[in-house]
Amino acid sequence: MPSISASILQSINRDCDRPLNILCINHKEAYQNMLSRTGHNFYFMYHPKLSPWNAAIRPIPNNCHLLTGDKQAANLRYDVDFDLIVCQDKDTQYPILLQVAKQLCCPMLNLEYSLTDPNANPYYVENLMYQNYNLTVFSSEFVSNSWGADIEDEDVKIIPHGIDTDFFTGWTGGDGKILTIVNNYQQRNNTMGFDLFTQIAKCFTMNPLGHTQGVSRATKNVDELLSAYQKADVYINTSTWHACPMTLLEAMSVGCPVVTTGSAMLTEIVEDGVNGFIADDIDTMKTKIQNILDDPDMTKEMGQKARQTIIDGFGSGQFIKNWQEVLLNVIDQPSCVLTS
């Protein structure tokens, strides 16, 4: 039976000079790719009901290892001393990883970059929030507030998204199209604003990307994604309840002019008329898009300011530094499942 003493001994006997061994289940490839830049080893469990890493979204880094096997126990590496478990989905991943944490006597960290479902039962949300974790990392205060977390709690940390600004750069525009990127757009209308997109599509030539049957296809690889950002005349985001779409940040990093709704925390990132435009209805969005198309000088300056916003607030260097501090702090804690 796992014990607190076993967890403590595991921490004491750890070789401090080696990278950490971190166990996960795949969730967001773009985020995981950035997280791998901490230099630690990440092992991704396979589960038949959950999607494996899609290399078309991001290539699999050398320090990320995909574990395979038909049974949960079969795809664990027993020749690896796991230091930490990272859960990225309270609903689907937690029940699986809780059992693994008990088995391995590992601390468990919760990574939360999504807002609560606007239609969710508040008691259900509260129950999810009080699951056993050693520490929870939120991508913003807005996200933590949506979950009812106390940012003054020592077990709550805020780490903004990290964007590879060296890769996501080089906007030229000129394709004559309005770019937007959303997976399952129609099914996520209540949070991603598919209805607004369909109205815009009646007025402009669109280039919708993302896996949405009958509407758009996913990019084949990250290079095709970059090319789409670079060539787009405008990038639009129509989300109505989304913390911070990574695609919006990537477009801004490239220097592409953006028009976005002001939902959730987006007005904290985009200042209307400075580094992008804010528009919450079809008429305003049409006007802002046309303003960009009609004024190349303003567009270029706006794109440069958008890029600087991402460099200053979402650069990969600060992202990696913040994560290193959190990871090295949490691994010395006894497993939450043994102390609860």
From TrEMBL:
Alphabetical list of InterPro entries matching this protein: Glyco_trans_1
Domain Glycosyl transferase family: 221-308
GO molecular function annotation: glycosyltransferase activity
SUPFAM superfamilies according to UniProt: UDP-Glycosyltransferase/glycogen phosphorylase
Any Pfam family matching the protein: Glycos_transf_1
Name of the protein described by the UniProt record: Glycosyl transferase family 1 domain-containing protein
